[in-house]
Every structure is written in C-alpha cells, then in structure tokens.
Amino acid sequence: MSTVPGRHRVVVTGIGMVNPLGIGTETVWARLLAGASGVGPIRGFDADRLPVRIAAEVADFDPTPWLTRLEVRRLDRFCHFALVAAELAVERAGLEGIDRDGAATVIGSAIGGATTMRAGVLKDAAEPWSVSPYFIPSSIVNMGAGSVSQHFGFRGPGAAPVTACASSADAIGQAYRMVRDGYAGAALAGGSEACIASPLIAGFANLRALSRRNDEPQRASRPFTADRDGFVMGEGATMMLLETAESAGARGAYVYAEICGYGQTSDAYHVTAPDPSGDSAARAMLAALREADLKPEEIDHVNAHGTSTTFSDAAETKAIKAAFGTHSGKLAVSSTKSMTGHLLGAAGATETAFCALAIDRGVIPPTINQDAPDPECDLDYVPNTARPYPVRAALSNSFAFGGQNVSLALQRFVRE
After folding, report:
1. What is the dihedral of CA 123, 127, 128, 130, to 10 degrees?
2. Given a cut of 70, is residue 3 above it in pLDDT?
3. CA-to-CA distance for 11 and 240, rounded, in angstroms?
4. 239 and 273 both lie in a single domain
5. Inter-residue contact 227 to 211 (CB < 8 Å)
6. Which residues, 6+ apart, have CB-to-CB distance to 196 below 8 Å?
7. Does 3 fall in a domain?
8. Quick one: pLDDT at residue 130?
9. CATH number of the domain bearing residue 343
10. Which residues contact 374 (CB under 8 A, 6 or more apart)?
11. Across the strands, what pairs with 149?
12. Which of 324, 327, 319, 311 is nearest to 406 (CA)?
C-alpha cells in the first residue's frame, strides 16, 4: 500500500451498472456469476443485410424512472445510460457530506452519440434544415460527463477521455489521481457507450473484428479459445463513486475496494492490431503494480481485456506471462466480455467494477464458452463456472485501437 505523504487513499463507495446483463449492480453481478450471456439477435434496427446480426444490447431500456422528460428528449442514449448508472451508484453510496463544488465528473466514451449522429447525417442528406438543434449537444463525447455533472451539481474538475476501448479505464484512472492528489474530494467516474448502430456494426464487421456466429449468439463471444472469431459489440454504462478513505469513514459509507494503481503505455505499433509481443501491455500492468506498491505475487485475479479476437487474446496472454512471470500460472484470469460483449468505451469501467465486486464478495467471475482450448492461451481463465476465492488484489486490463494500454490495480480496503 502506497503511503506517499500528502496523498489520499481512494476507495469505491458506489457502483451503478446498465449493461446487457441487466440494470442495477446486484442484477448484473448475479447473472455474471451464473454465467449468463447478454448476447442475442440485434433488435434495435433491421440487421438482415449485414454480415453480423448479433450484439449485446440493453434490452427494453426505459430511462424515464430516473431522468426528467427534458433529459430524455434532448440527450442521446449513451447519456441516458450514463445518467441512470450514475443515479444507481449514488443511490448506493449517498452524497451526504460530499462537497459538490469540489466533486469531479470523469466519463469516457469511444464513440459518443452514435444513433444521434446517424440520424443527423441522414436528415442532412435529405434536408439540412431538418437537422435537430439538439444534434451537437446530444452527440458530442463530453456530453456524458456534462449531463451527469449538471444532473448532480458536481462543479469540480470535469473530463471525457477518448481512448477507444480504454476510455473508461482512463476515466477511472484520472479520477483516482484527482482524488488521491487532492484536486477533487470525490468523483463520479466511469464510461458509457450506445454503439449498436448499423454503420458501426458494418464498419467493425468489414474490419473482420466481429464474430459471425449469427446462429449461436450466446456462444459467439469466446475469449482465449482456439475457434474464437471476433468480439461481440455491446452497450451500456458503469459509474463509480470514488472518494477519499477519510471521507468514506466520516460518512459511514460502505467501501467495496480501494483503487491503488494506474498504468498507461502505448504500443507504437499499428492502428488496430496489438503488438503481438505483449511488451507494452505488460509494462502497463507493471506500472499499475508499481504505483500500487504491490508485488506481482500479491495479485490473485486479473479481469482481462479478453475480447475474443485472434491476435489480442494471444498478445494479452503473453503480456500477463511477461508481467507476472511464474506467478502467471497462479492467477485467475477472467474475461467477462464472454457474457457482456465488448462495451467499447464503457468496458474498462465495467470490468474495474467487476474487480471491486470480486474483492468485496470473494467470488471470481467465469469466462464462459471455454470448450476449445488454444495452446497459445494456456492460463487459468476460470472456465465456465464462478469461483469462490478471497481476492486480496486484482488488475483490470483495457487495451485499445491505436495501441493504448491501461491497467488499473485494486485491493481489499483495510482501515488504518
């Protein structure tokens, strides 16, 4: 545990989730441990002409119990997700005793308002004057953070990291450092994505990045297996309330876990493909461990990036081995994307929250669809069944297009 003078310990006191497994942290966690899949045929639009017709959607989502009519009308679906997840996090943690003038809002997204952008482009092609006046404020990426900040009256630092699939991991990392170093007393941090739109499905499909198992959607996301054929697009949001350990103690707030390390590196290798050596990803993990003052053998669990793409899964396996050495064989490595799909800019926050819950509850989520072992991917991926285990500390990995790597370290919180 780092004890640098002048720095605060940062704890997680609220978690709110909206994702393909359900709405609300307890619902999502129960389905995750049960090995349920959120993948199915695309319902949000007619995908019959596309080569990929499956995704992990948030089914039957209705934001109206949580949001005002104005928020629903003016904002894109990704903002709705962010606001509802934030409401759920605050409902759990409370805000009594939080100085809202000094509270930060840091929310990442890879795409932003995808459905709003598509609708605006189509209207512009037909008649420019028909484009909605809400087109810009609804679609820009920082509106997730802006809308949550406005909704809760958080007037401290605000940011909206855009680092593709690492966006919300960067959001958690930046918020952690803001609170740790005294720039904010608390933060609502996380990510949101509503990316299941036909141009995005078509674009990723044409990159050959998506699974084409249209006839067996629940088996399509199969990280680390020999017959994996791409990731499954998902959507949703996760928000976490971070605050100092002193604040949580004074408020009597429940603490899920402590965030203690944040590592970032770049591959400098390729626009979309990961460095096959896994070197930079390993350095991100080691940087997070150094900042956390944790030894590799103190980590029990890794929530892997684990997208179910051929090159990424193999590179991450190499990276974990490089970072942990002989201890890599003792790690429980889960890819929860096997159940949620890949939430792009919301994935990192979602998987960091899963690490916090694994530490808090003493159960490690499984990686489902593990029925075709890949000799190149030979770690313990917690196959198919959740595993009770007293997790002391965990890492969450997020690796993005452009070669941006983020690793976050969490540990069990022990009061001084």
Report:
1. -70
2. no
3. 10
4. no
5. no
6. 42, 44, 45, 55, 57, 233, 234, 235
7. no
8. 74
9. 3.40.47.10
10. 224, 225, 226, 228, 313, 314
11. none
12. 319
On whether both 51 and 127 belong to a single domain, the answer is yes
* CA dihedral of 168, 14, 34, 167, whole degrees rounded to 10: 0
Residue type, 235: E
Quote the strand ranges of 5-143, DSSP E. 10-19, 22-23, 40-41, 54-55, 103-108
Q: Is residue 5 part of a domain?
A: no
Joined tokens for residue 376? 């190149």
Using alpha carbons, list the distances in angstroms from residue 164 to 109, 148, 358, 395: 7, 20, 25, 19
Q: What is the distance between the terminal CA atoms of the chain, rounded to a whole angstrom?
A: 11
Beta bridge partners of 288: none
Among the listed residues 331, 295, 320, the one whose alpha carbon sits nearest the alpha carbon of residue 376? 320
Domain-located, residue 256: no
**Enclosing domain of residue 378:** 262-411
d(CA 377, CA 333): 11
pLDDT > 50? residue 262: yes
CA–CA dist 55, 212 (Å, integer): 10
Distance (Å, rounded) from C-alpha 86 to C-alpha 83? 5
354-405 pLDDT, tens digit per residue, is 999 999 999 999 999 999 999 999 999 999 999 999 999 999 999 999 999 9
For the stretch 169-200, pLDDT in tens is 999 999 999 999 999 999 999 999 999 999 99
Residue with tokens 């003016």: 74
The tens digit of pLDDT for each residue in 265-299 reads 999 999 889 999 999 999 999 999 999 999 999 99
Answer yes or no: is 58 within a domain: yes
pLDDT in tens, 302-333: 999 999 999 999 999 999 999 999 999 999 99
Catalytically active residues, by annotation:
165, 305, 342
Q: How many distinct structural domains can be found in the chain? A: 2
For residue 315, give both structure tokens: 């590179």
